[in-house]
């Protein structure tokens, strides 16, 4: 048995009561329907139709008027009052209570939304998996952009399909009230693409749900450019496992020259070159003085939190202003200035240097005295105190060079090596049959990390360097070990050997002792050592310029120590070569638009399904049908005869359903704008029925309200089927029209 439940208005229920008392109305004679007349109904009454043999049944409610067509004699009526739950329907095999389920006719649209979500998820998963990876590692035969384009095409097609079908379906719902016929064309155009959606979106009529679909259709145009913005290519650096990077450093330096006598040796050539380069053409900084191995041009080196990469033995300088120690002799002519260590300046001598006994445990210390003459003075001018060429105050400076431990942070970027000084610690000076500078540290840098130097009283596999109690390196023998020996790891001990310090000190002494700069015709015409002229700076020397001069010398000497030191104790700071690649970066913000459109599309479809499932202006979704974009609707549910007659300008012929020639497209649009229609149930089914110009949604025309002629309508007589019309011979599921006659209510 199948169930059809209709909620009838009071007006329809009253007509049905009268009809049921007057005639069987296709109802079995065995059923007593008088209870219907005696019901005290609320605003509406629910009547359940039990169809015992389904061969064809159709009904329609239109604003208080009900037309019934029945081609079976066996129909039972039962009544129920005050039903609060929604009505339930079963039509032509649709199960009972299916009204609360999603119509099967929308399954493709639901699947399409799922496919769109899958395409969006596939795009996110694809780009996410390769975010930060190099482009050459992309394993697929097509590019990642092509794959994104494919996913985007699937996403757009799947997203637009339910939107287009939804707008198409909404155009049929739109005509539940009288509307201009041109709206049918507007909705149809909007379902076909962005241009029609723009026209619909800016149309003043309030079709909010359809406007949402139009907005989604227009916004979907931006999905393609947005999807292409998701991927950004950039140059990135990747580890090159086929090469190595290293920076020279050392823990020990003992390179010397040829031994020439007691406590005397010549300095080796590379060290002499380093000294001259430091004095005459100093490096800009320590980075420029070092040659590193970085085959790719980009290398990184492990570092601590404070940026320390490695520690190395180095040469440090120090300078101080000793102008207060200058002695002025102005009692004689010419006037002269002197230092206790020997340098003097006077009438023609502008700068002078002399070695100084080491008082601060330095390899070498010298003092320099410099004088600045006015430019208008000549060599013959008197230097008396009342003369016009009395010089500026003399400037004196003392500078030293000593071994030290320096810690650097370093990297190589685009073939440019850059290192920065983190800390500097002088090595203690130790006298042990020569000059030694030795430091045993408590911790050391190994591969960019600090490691503790755990000393031991006996040699071990890691603690191999012995340091005596007085700070010298233990070479063996009971006499040296009398005070005790402590053993350290080799990486924790820094040594500047006397074999290197002795010739270096001698060479610097010979260079600086007794050197001077003089002028003859004028102070700008200088004669003397080139390196001393650089120190003098044409009389503009200051503590800052002298310190920079000595820094260049120390930096050049440090580079020589680092590159020629003992590689067994430190050798190189190891790094990681980086090669430039093209990498993929995902810009997640560009997924906002497609994600938002999908959410809106799902909301649009959900609202449409709810709109389809519930009563709208007295109609049921199964009565109007889920037509969507079907082109067959005009063939089955076209204009009613009267409206078509107005369009054609003459009566409609029964044989051809046409009378006048078809009007042009422009004329049809003009007529459609001025013609108001609504979907109503005619004798032959749903039709677009013409409506009066002032008719509103709750009104119906006289013909659509009663289905009677004017005289019958004035009598307010109900409609009953004509018993003279036989329905028993109608074929199953017949759609043949049923004739009606008016009957008077019983006395």
From TrEMBL:
Residues passing through the membrane, by range: 106-130, 142-164, 588-610
Top-level taxon: Eukaryota
Positions with biased composition (Low complexity): 731-747
Entry keyword Lipid biosynthesis: no
Biased composition (Polar residues): 709-719
InterPro entries the UniProt entry points to: DUF3176 (IPR021514)
Keywords: Membrane, Signal, Transmembrane, Transmembrane helix
Chain positions covered by the region annotation Disordered: 648-669, 693-747
Biased composition (Basic and acidic residues): 696-706
Alphabetized Pfam families for the sequence: DUF3176
Region forming the signal peptide: 1-15
PANTHER family: DUF3176 DOMAIN-CONTAINING PROTEIN (PTHR35394:SF5)
Name of this chain's protein: Uncharacterized protein
Organism for this UniProt entry: Botryosphaeria dothidea
């Amino acid at each position: 048995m199948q169930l059809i439940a209709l909620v009838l208005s009071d007006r329809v229920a009253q007509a049905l009561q009268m009809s049921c008392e007057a005639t069987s109305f296709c109802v079995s004679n065995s059923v007593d329907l008088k209870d219907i007349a005696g019901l005290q109904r609320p605003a509406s009454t629910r009547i359940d139709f039990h169809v015992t043999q389904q061969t064809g049944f159709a009904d329609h409610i239109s604003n208080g008027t009900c037309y019934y067509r029945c081609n079976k004699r066996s129909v039972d009526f039962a009544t129920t009052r005050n039903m609060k739950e929604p009505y339930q329907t079963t039509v032509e095999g649709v199960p009972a209570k299916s009204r609360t389920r999603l119509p099967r006719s929308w399954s493709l649209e639901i699947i399409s939304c799922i496919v769109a979500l899958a395409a969006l998820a596939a795009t996110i998963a694809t780009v996410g998996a390769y975010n930060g990876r190099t482009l050459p590692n992309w394993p697929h035969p097509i590019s990642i952009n092509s794959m994104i384009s494919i996913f985007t095409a699937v996403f757009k097609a799947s997203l637009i399909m339910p939107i287009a079908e939804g707008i198409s379906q909404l155009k049929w719902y739109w005509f539940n009230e009288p509307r201009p016929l041109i709206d049918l064309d507007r909705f149809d155009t909007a379902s076909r693409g962005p241009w029609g959606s723009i026209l619909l979106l800016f149309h003043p009529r309030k079709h909010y749900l359809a406007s949402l679909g139009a907005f989604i259709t227009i916004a979907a145009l931006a999905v393609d450019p947005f999807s292409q913005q998701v991927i950004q290519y950039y140059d990135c650096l990747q580890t090159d496992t086929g090469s190595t990077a290293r920076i020279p450093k050392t823990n020990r330096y003992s390179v010397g020259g040829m031994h020439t006598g007691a406590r005397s040796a010549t300095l080796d050539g590379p060290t002499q070159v380093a000294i001259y380069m430091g004095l005459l053409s100093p490096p800009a900084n320590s980075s420029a003085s070092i040659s590193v191995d970085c085959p790719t041009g980009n290398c990184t080196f492990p570092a601590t939190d404070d940026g320390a990469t490695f520690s190395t033995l180095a040469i440090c300088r120090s300078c101080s202003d000793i102008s207060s120690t200058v002695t002025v002799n102005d009692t004689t002519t010419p006037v002269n200035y002197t230092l206790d260590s020997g340098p003097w300046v006077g009438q023609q001598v502008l700068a002078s240097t002399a070695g100084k006994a080491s008082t601060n445990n330095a390899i070498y210390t010298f003092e320099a005295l410099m004088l600045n003459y006015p430019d208008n003075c000549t060599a013959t001018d008197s230097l008396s105190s009342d003369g016009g060429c009395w010089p500026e105050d003399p400037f004196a400076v003392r500078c030293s060079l000593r071994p030290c431990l320096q810690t650097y942070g370093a990297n190589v970027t685009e073939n440019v090596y850059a290192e920065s000084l983190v800390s500097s610690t002088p090595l203690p000076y130790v006298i042990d049959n020569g000059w030694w500078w030795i430091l045993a540290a408590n911790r050391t840098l190994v591969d960019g990390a600090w490691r503790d130097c755990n000393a031991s009283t006996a040699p071990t596999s890691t603690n191999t360097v012995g340091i005596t109690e007085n700070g010298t390196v233990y070479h063996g023998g009971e006499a040296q070990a009398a005070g005790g020996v402590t053993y350290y790891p080799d990486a924790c001990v820094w040594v500047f050997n006397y074999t290197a310090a002795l010739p270096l000190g001698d060479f610097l002494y010979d260079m600086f002792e007794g050197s001077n700069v003089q002028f003859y015709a004028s102070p700008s015409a200088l004669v003397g050592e080139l390196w001393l002229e650089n120190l003098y700076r044409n009389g503009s020397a200051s503590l800052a310029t002298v310190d920079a001069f000595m820094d260049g010398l120390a930096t050049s000497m440090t580079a020589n120590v680092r590159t020629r030191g003992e590689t067994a104790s430190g050798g190189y700071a190891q790094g990681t070569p980086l090669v430039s690649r093209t990498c993929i970066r995902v810009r997640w913000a560009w997924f906002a638009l497609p994600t938002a459109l999908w959410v809106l599309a799902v909301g649009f479809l959900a609202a449409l399904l709810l709109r389809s499932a519930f009563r709208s202006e007295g109609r049921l979704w199964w009565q109007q049908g889920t037509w969507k974009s079907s082109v067959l609707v005009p063939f089955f549910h076209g204009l009613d005869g009267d409206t078509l007659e107005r369009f054609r300008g003459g009566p409609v012929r029964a044989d051809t359903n046409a009378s006048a020639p078809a009007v042009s497209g422009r004329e049809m649009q003009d007529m459609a704008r001025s013609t108001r229609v609504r979907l109503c149930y005619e004798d032959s089914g749903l039709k677009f029925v013409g409506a009066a110009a002032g008719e509103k949604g709750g009104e119906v025309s006289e013909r659509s309200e009663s289905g009677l002629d004017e005289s019958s309508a004035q009598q307010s007589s109900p409609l009953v089927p004509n018993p003279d019309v036989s329905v028993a011979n109608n074929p199953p599921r017949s759609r043949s029209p049923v004739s009606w006659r008016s009957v008077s209510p019983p006395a």
